[in-house]
Amino acid sequence: MGGAVSAGEDNDDLIDNLKEAYYIRSDLVEKAFRAIDRADYYLDEYRDNAYKDLAWRHGNIHLSAPCIYSEVMEALDLHPGLSFLNLGSGTGYLSTMVGLILGPFGVNHGIELHADVIDYAYQKLDSFIKTSDSFDKFEFCEPSFVAGNCLDIPLESRQYDRVYCGAGVQKEHEDYMRNLLKIGGILVMPLEEKLTKITRTGTSTWETKKILSVSFAPLVLPKHGPNGKPKIVPLPRYEVRTLQELARICIRHTLRVTTDEKESQSRGRGSSFSYGPRFKRRRVHRRQCSIQVVDEVVDEEEEQEEEEEKETGELLRPQPAVNLLRERILGLPLPEPLKMYLLFYREK
Q: H or E element: which one contains 166?
């Protein structure tokens, strides 16, 4: 499934195409997609295919097409502090993007059928936390995964504000899925070849909306144990944060907010979220404009860059962005072990 939009040269280009095709419609979803490079969830030998609007599978590892994830993220209507359950969590790509929106006081759980895929997801999650600059730009709700069949969740289990199922749901399992929702919650799943949004409006009332036609592999039916009874899959535990963790969240939030305010003041106005120099330049070139003066300015800039490239013998590259949150933490009058704790022991 996929192929609805053109392939991109990189992650930003892919997001541009998804916006132009109206798959991405909200700022929150756009920010989450830009923050997580889709290629990071591919095996190295397949990274060249990461920015195509196509699903990808290698063994048990699977990623849906970007247009599908876009529609799912929009339909879930995510907000900070919500609880989220991802049925068939796979590589953790979607769960990580969701975690950027839920914030530190949300709940981010996933169930995955294959244990080797959970190992892969945790490797990717660890890499994101330790190496991605995006981690310091958001307040993150770290996902937790458990192995098992999502149809083996006990009926008396807790309910969630948002639920997504990444496999085709048979009609006979629709009620089972709906009962995972709290009142007011939203369930998004492939049902009868349609990506479907179901909102629980009351104890036994629902609203259903068909979003688009899709083709998903069906849910794998559970296998019964030797005694003929189904296996029980416990959901991930709700973890109560320690005072130490709460203090870290509060300190990082305060430093981030004050940093964003200073950045906004230095720019005069505008939001704290901005694209990199390379992305800004692409948008200038792609924008259609009938005013000749603008075209001349762009041409002059290009000519100047070409001259500088000839003189230096190398391509001009934008300077890497400074991680201001990291700089502020390192500048605090605190012992080094405490600074590293505030940094989540992240590498530079």
A: none
Partners of 107 in beta bridges: 83
What pLDDT score was predicted for residue 275? 44
- Distance of alpha carbon 266 from alpha carbon 58, whole angstroms: 47
Q: In what order do the strands lie in the sheet with 194-200?
A: 144-147, 107-112, 83-87, 160-165, 181-191, 194-200, 206-213
What's the CA gap between 210 and 111, in Å, rounded?
24
Domain range list for the chain: 11-213, 243-342
Catalytic residue among 6, 26, 64, 264: 64
Please calculate the CA angle 114-120-126 and round it to the nearest 5 degrees.
140
- Tell me which residue has tokens 């001259």: 307
| CA dist., res. 39 & res. 24, Å (int) | 19
Q: Is 114 helix (H, G, I), strand (E, B) or coil?
A: coil
Q: Of the given ranges (47-56, 66-75, 244-253, 295-304), which has the lowest mean pLDDT?
A: 295-304
**SS3 of residue 87 by DSSP:** strand
Residue 292 to residue 9: CA distance in whole angstroms: 28
Q: Is the pLDDT of residue 43 over 50?
A: yes
Angle at 102 between CA 134 and CA 142, to 5 degrees: 65
What CA–CA distances, in Å, run from 306 to 81, 194, 217, 277, 319?
A: 49, 51, 50, 17, 18
E-strand spans in the chain? 56-58, 61-63, 83-87, 107-112, 144-147, 160-165, 181-191, 194-200, 206-213
Q: Which residue bears the tokens 């934008």?
A: 318
Catalytic site includes residue 64:
yes
In the chain, % of residues over pLDDT 70: 81
CATH 3.30.1490.190: does it fit domain 11-213? no
